[in-house]
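To whoever picks this up:

The nightly regression suite flagged cyanoalanine nitrilase as changed. Nothing in the input moved, so I suspect the structure step. Input below, exactly as stored in the fixture:
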Amino acid sequence: MALVTSGSGAGPVINEVEMNGGADPSATTVRATVVQASTVFYDTPATLDKAERLIEEAAGYGSQLVVFPEAFIGGYPRGSTFGFGISVSIANPKDKGKEAFQRYHAAAIDVPGPEVTRLAAMAAKYKVFLVMGVIEREGYTLYCSVLFFDPLGRYLGIEIYCAPTADSRPVWQASMTHIALEGGCFVLSANQFCRRKDYPPPPEYEFAGFGEEPSADTVVCPGGSVIISPSGEVLAGPNYEGEALITADLDLGEIVRAKFDFDVVGHYARPEVLSLVVNDKPQLPVSFTSAAEKTSAAKNDSIAKSY
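Regenerated output under the current build:
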């Protein structure tokens, strides 16, 4: 696994800081690693094994924060149309698209579940904050989600994508910079690097969008993972060469300095003029109002009108 650091890798990777003791609340610098690697597609146990090897390697470099790409566990279904645009048939239970979705559904994970427990154990074992992209299974619905863990092995929470993104990473490079500048934050942008051979071969897995079936070594996801500072400086990456660990030391003081220029939710905000409300409560697709409640409400309304 290649290691990409700031400063083009001149000198030793670690030469000044002992970081094996987990999170230090007084520390002003955090070593962060963005993982650029491919899922072991349709094989969640093997993907978890690979994740642990990468976490161990990153922790060996002194990283305290390890960030994986979206859908690393469960896989990003590149090239798969699930039958749409090819020969989808609602009446045919053997339709290839349906079979592909069944396998993809089986590779997803439940939250909470045994895979989440194992990820928490990895975070504790290697004493890192862990950010892991997963395909979350809830019944028959799949979500592109991100899980968060601390160095004590505690599951901190989940973020669910409203919609997975699909544009190429070169297009995003400018976006990563302006997000860092506007937010006054570090941006750790993780993407997979995949070749066709990282996915099952045809006919088990048909790869669309290339005109013809790509060769085994064809790059189907180019990586481009990058770490950017609150001032818009590229600290490490982007990497388009292969699987890699992209690592940089983050000076937390840069966040304070950036907020002096622009604090979008602080002293630059005008919530009395413009505010954003996010509803994070789970929404039910179907809800019931009982007949007893309706009767009681009607009776109360009748009593109120009589007065």
